[in-house]
Amino acid sequence: FKSDMGVRGREREPPAFAFAFDIDGVLLHVAKPIPGAPEVLKFLNDYNIPFILLTNGGGKHETERVKDLSERLGVPLSTDNFVQSHTPFRDLVEGPGSLRDKTVLVTGSDYEKCRAIFKEYGFKNVITPADIYAADPTIFPFQPPHTFTTPPQPLPKPLYNETTATSPPSADTHLKVDAMFVLNDPRDWALDIQIITDLLLSHAGFPGTYSPLNNTDSNGGGGGGWQQDNQPPLYFSNADLLWSANYPLPRFGQGAFQAALAGLWARVTGGGGELRRTSIGKPYGETYRFAERVLGDHRQGVLKAMGGHQHQHQQGVVGSPPLGRVYMVGDNPESDIAGANGHVSEQGTEWVSVLVKTGVWSESRGGRLEGGLKPKVVVDDVMAAVKWALRKEG
Ligand code: G3P
Ligand code: MG
């Protein structure tokens, strides 16, 4: 494998290129390494060629996921070279519009893991759909949605309930949700969609209220009008309609949940309201800019360890030699390829999109690769991708 790579010895000067690897469909099928993936990562590690893992996956804290990935792929990884879908949400704790002390609702595959992630990011008041359900089970008139892995937590304030509240809610006396986040693929779509829709229809984020600005009729039919009434913003950590798991055909991802919610929202608002949402993750520029910063910092560490991090830039500053190219190796044209092709680097780094055949895209299913979805090259798998890139680098 090493001879194929055309790599001189360890002493090679700091590479002017690096890699960004998608995970699902490139390195792993869920928990199973894709053939060649461990060898490739070990090789890059041995030869000090920097790389990051850039995934739309999530639902576990970075430290937990990185430990799991290191064990599965047999390569030392750290949070320094790992970006998952919701990692950039950490930035919402600080700065203007900080949500640190606001009440945020989180959902995903495991409510308590999502809460723990956001608590670790620095959000102080984090609630889940299970907390709201436990506070008033009538909010969801079906069987309990699922055996909650750990008991829900009491809400910081009581739920507003028109039959009992004597005056319009105030944030001092009743629960007010200030923002909603989907961190990874939800499991309880019915409960989550009910509660998220309640909040999108609410007055200012008070569950149990109904904004007078939403003039849908009683059966959610042709009201047609919907105006923002300080409802809590809705954030998604990725828009993947499909992703590559162990089943031979792609599976629904968080983008499918978004589509289900958006379809219900159109119905409930009588078509009057576009589902207002913010989605990050690949292919969005925010995630690629965040990833490039993470890769740049990680690369400095790698080059420093090599002793090759001193470089006189044109501006006269001393730092790492410029990063010329990042080879983005992905399996999903809609996220990995489109994102790399569309990324405009703040440092003038060229992102080269490489599509593998081990994931979402396949020739047999005829996924069209046109426009922004057209990769620089299509190769069989991650090992072929790295060999192709190294040959290009000479
Ligand atoms: O939930 C994981 C899925 O959305 C795709 O993950 O690693 O292929 O970006 P990945
Ligand atoms: Mg993938």
Strand content: 5-15%
The set of bound ligands, ions and cofactors reads: SN-glycerol-3-phosphate, magnesium ion
Q: Mean pLDDT, as a whole number?
A: 89
Number of helices: 9
CA radius of gyration is: 23 Å
**What pattern of helices and strands is seen along the backbone?**
EEEHEHEEHEHEHEEEHEHEHEEH
Please state how the strands of the largest beta sheet are arranged side by side. Answer: 5-4-1-13-14-15
Oligomer: single chain
Query: Which runs of at least 5 residues are low in confidence (pLDDT < 50)?
Result: 217-225
Protein structure class:
alpha/beta
Broad shape: elongated
Q: How many DSSP E strands? A: 15
Protein name: HAD-like domain-containing protein
Organism: Chaetomidium leptoderma
Description of the molecule:
The longest helix has 22 residues, at 285-306. The two termini are 16 Å apart. Mean pLDDT is 89; it is low at 217-225. A 6-stranded parallel sheet has the order 5-4-1-13-14-15, sandwiched between helices. A 5-stranded parallel sheet has the order 7-6-8-9-12. The protein has a two-stranded antiparallel ribbon with strand order 2-3. Strand 8, helix 5 (189-201) and strand 9 (234-236) form a beta-alpha-beta unit. 28% of the residues lie in helices and 13% in strands. It contains 9 helices and 15 strands. It has helices at residues 37-46, 62-73, 111-121, 129-135, 189-201, 254-268, 285-306, 333-342, 382-393; strands spanning 17-21, 28-29, 32-33, 51-54, 82-83, 103-107, 125-127, 179-182, 234-236, 242-243, 251-252, 278-279, 325-330, 350-356, 377-379. The protein is elongated, with a radius of gyration of 23 Å. The chain is an alpha/beta fold. The structure holds SN-glycerol-3-phosphate and magnesium ion (MG). This is HAD-like domain-containing protein. One of its GO terms (biological process) is glycerophospholipid biosynthetic process. It comes from Chaetomidium leptoderma.
